[in-house]
Amino acid sequence: MQFVYFTKSLPAFDVSDWIAWCLEYRIPGLDLAVRPGYPVTPDNVATILPKWAEMLAKEKLIIGLVTAPTDLNNPEDKRARTMFRACKAAGVAAIKIGYFGFSGGYPQEFAKAKAALSGFAELAKETGVKVLHHTHSGGYLGNNAAGQRLIFEGIDPHYLGSFLDTGHLALGGGPFAQEVELIKPWFSCLAIKDIEWFRDGSVWKNQVVPVGSGIVRWAEVGKALKKNSFDGTVSLHGEYAMEGPVNRGRAAALEKSKILNEIK
């Protein structure tokens, strides 16, 4: 498995900051958010991404994948071709695209999402950069493995990959082993996230918490990964409140260790 850290939580970090942070906390690389408001954006990705990749590689660190803006869900979007070509130039193996919202009219929205994924798969075929779709709970198509499989079927797993999310699947999926079995041909990437429920007045809400603090059954996750000999990319998402990069680094190192211990 290849561990990376999702850069969403430290948007002010430049490449030199990430190099020092990864080396300090023994995180092999990055799941790089390429979004407005971050050092690498869809507007500058063609020039900046290869430079970042080269600087990281000098320290034996990687960019395991790029995470696009959440609204990048159309392969005809000019940002899509730019980002796929930039990843090819930088040697980045995969791009996590945005989401397909569901607001009713399932047959039409399903057909639109499937056509979009097929188009992204063509970009992947052209560039050698795999497209990843993430299981985000809530009002989205493909928010768990069963939903993903419906829109993935017929698309070559060489070009399209499933990005399973432990936290979101705890909210809207089945047992983790079942999720893996359902999407196994496409299973390429794993987001590490734990979730807790809390009551806000009369309303139940959920939030991301450090691994081991929430409802995810980590022993089941580890057992399924081991059974299926998972050897893909593991993204430590770290999307919880944490004061300062030092504490965040220590938490990431602990989470990496916990996942490795669970698959022994």
Structural commentary:
This protein has 264 residues and is an alpha/beta fold. It has one domain (2-262): TIM Barrel (Alpha-Beta Barrel). It has helices at 15-25, 45-58, 78-90, 106-127, 145-152, 166-172, 176-183, 218-227, 244-262; strands at residues 2-6, 29-33, 62-67, 94-96, 130-134, 160-165, 187-192, 194-200, 203-209, 233-236. The chain has an eight-stranded parallel beta barrel with strand order 1-2-3-4-5-6-7-10, surrounded by eight helices. Strands 8-9 form a two-stranded antiparallel ribbon. Strand 1 (2-6), helix 1 (15-25) and strand 2 (29-33) form a beta-alpha-beta unit. Helix 3 (78-90) packs parallel to helix 4 (106-127).
What's the arrangement of secondary structure elements?
Blueprint: E1 2-6, H1 15-25, E2 29-33, H2 45-58, E3 62-67, H3 78-90, E4 94-96, H4 106-127, E5 130-134, H5 145-152, E6 160-165, H6 166-172, H7 176-183, E7 187-192, E8 194-200, E9 203-209, H8 218-227, E10 233-236, H9 244-262
Parallel strand pairs: 1-2, 1-10, 2-3, 3-4, 4-5, 5-6, 6-7, 7-10
Antiparallel strand pairs: 8-9
Helix pairs in contact: 1-9, 2-3, 3-4, 5-7, 8-9
